[in-house]
Amino acid sequence: MTALFNTYVYQPILWLLVFIYQNLSFHDLGLAIIILTILVRLVLLPIFYKGAKDQTIIQKIQPHVKKIQLDHKDDKEKQAKELMALYKEHNINPFSSIIFLIIQLPIFFALFSIFTKEIGAAVFESRYFAGFMNLDEKSLALAAFAAILQYIQMKMMMKGPVAANQKMMMYAGPVITIVVLWNLPAAIGLYWAVSNLFSIGQQWFINKKTQG
Question: For the whole model, what pTM was predicted?
Answer without folding.
Answer: 0.86
